[in-house]
Design a protein that fits this description.
The structure holds 2 protein chains of 2 kinds. Chain A is built from 8 helices and no strands. Chain A has 2 domains: 1-98, RNA polymerase sigma factor, region 2, helix turn helix motif (Rna Polymerase Sigma Factor, Chain: A, Orthogonal Bundle), CATH 1.10.1740; 99-179, Winged helix-like DNA-binding domain superfamily/Winged helix DNA-binding domain (Arc Repressor Mutant, subunit A). By secondary structure, chain A is mostly helical. Chain B is mainly alpha-helical. Chain B folds into 2 domains: 3-56, no CATH class; 93-214, no CATH class. Chain B is 47% helix and 8% strand. In chain B, the strands form 2 sheets. Chain B has a two-stranded antiparallel ribbon with strand order 1-2. Chain B has a two-stranded antiparallel ribbon with strand order 3-4. The termini of chain B are far apart. The chains are: A mainly alpha, B mainly alpha. At the A-B interface, helix 2, helix 3, helix 5, helix 6 and helix 8 of A face helix 2, helix 3 and helix 4 of B.
């Protein structure tokens, strides 16, 4: 790579082209640009800084291994997010942490008279969302990504990304928000 | 349908497709309703803030030094990686010439299918093809003369390779009904319709599998 040209002047497509052309050092530019974002996403998905760090490592290594297949249909960021979410999924599977919300035995009773999400309960419930719903929620709420892009990351359609997101919101509402007409907990 | 009825319908659909994907049409209709219905769709400001708070909680983003260290480890691993496989260029032009000359000679014609299908290597076809190779190999190993290749017509406008004594029509008749566009059984190239060969569209893994099944191509010249 031309060292007189800082990475900041190259857009992601240029950098990817360099890497695809055999310039491994150029990959460091992409790592520097996106590892923090990948870390934050992974930490939200896994709930663990250590695991997030592992996800960052494996995601970028896999991104490098697959760089030949990157064609620029989506942005590099979207692409590497997708890889990171796959890594998170593999972590979930290894640790058997995928738990459907409906499979949770008994949620804490909602606060009677409260008027907003109970944050403690909410945190616990988010952890238990199915992966795709959780990912859609995190990407929408935290990253403020459009559903089209979320769909690309989740390898699904825009409409499906939307549905996954609203699924998550609906569940969180049902579980966390006080509802005078409801006994609390899933049926 | 009233708004309330529509809300109930969408809620039912959402429940039904909790862990699985809805059909595209249903997904679209759910998404359209959620987007337009203020009762079902949008979170209010309070809910949004609570979610952001909770998702931000426990976020312990390391300092720059830690990320530099992380980047160094990633790059060390990257440098240690073997040379990445390049996308495979059009392969074995010599064999294509052979195929073309066979075609010109009238001994075979390129396969044509009424409805184009996407180029894809299915496991079933690969297994069948591998079986064919094993059969051929066993024939060769038992000292019988190398089987002659010939092209047989199986269906109108479908050409498959046949090895004498071994009918590979089932290969063409299998679910994906891939056409064998090449004439050396050791060097199968799975053909798409319209004469576009499929090999360039195969992933590296699929190519590995293909090579694993057929070995390297013997000279076709």
């Amino acid at each position: 790579m031309d060292s007189s040209k800082p990475g900041g002047e190259l857009d992601d497509g240029d950098v990817v082209a360099l890497v695809q052309g055999g310039d491994r050092e150029a990959f460091g530019i992409l790592v520097t640009r996106y590892q923090r974002m990948v870390f934050v996403l992974a930490q939200r998905m896994t709930g663990s800084a250590d695991q997030a760090q592992d996800v960052v490592q494996s995601s970028f290594l896999n991104a490098f291994r697959q760089i030949e297949s990157f064609r620029g249909d989506a942005s590099f960021k979207t692409w590497v997010y997708g890889i990171a979410l796959n890594e998170c999924r593999m972590l979930y599977r290894k640790s058997g942490r995928t738990v459907a919300l409906d499979a949770v035995a008994e949620p804490p009773a909602p606060k009677v008279g409260g008027h907003a999400f109970d944050r403690f309960v909410l945190g616990k419930m988010i952890e238990r969302l199915p992966e795709k719903q959780k990912a859609a929620l995190v990407l929408r709420v935290c990253e403020d990504l459009p559903f089209r892009e979320i769909g690309q990351i989740l390898d699904t359609s825009e409409a499906s990304a939307k549905v996954n997101y609203f699924h998550a919101v609906k569940k969180l509402r049902a579980w966390v928000l006080p509802d005078p007409g409801r006994e609390g907990g899933p049926s | 349908m009233s708004v309330r009825e529509e809300c109930r319908r969408v809620a039912d659909l959402l429940d039904r497709f909790d862990q699985t994907e809805a059909r595209a049409q249903e997904t679209d209709s759910i998404a359209a309703h959620l987007e337009s219905c203020p009762d079902c769709g949008a979170m209010d400001h309070e809910e949004q803030r609570a979610l952001e708070d909770v998702l931000a909680r426990g976020q312990d983003v390391p300092g720059d030094a830690s990320f530099e260290d992380s980047a160094s480890r990633i790059m060390a691993a990257v440098q240690a990686e073997p040379e990445p496989r390049r996308r495979v260029p059009p392969r074995r032009p010599a064999s294509r010439e052979v195929a073309q000359s066979l075609r010109r000679s009238g001994r075979a014609s390129r396969a044509v299918r009424a409805e184009p299908r996407r180029a894809r290597l299915s496991g079933g076809v690969l297994a069948l093809a591998a079986g064919v190779v094993l059969l051929v190999a066993s024939v060769m190993l038992t000292g019988r003369p190398e089987p002659a290749l010939r092209v047989v017509a199986v269906e109108p406008a479908v050409a498959v390779v046949s090895v004498e004594g071994i009918d590979v029509r089932e290969l063409a008749a299998s679910d994906d009904a891939w056409l064998v566009a090449r004439y050396d059984i050791f060097d199968l190239e799975l053909g798409d319709t319209g004469g576009e060969l499929a090999v360039e569209e195969l992933s590296d893994d699929e190519l590995d599998a293909l090579e694993g099944a057929f070995g390297s191509a013997p000279s076709l010249g």
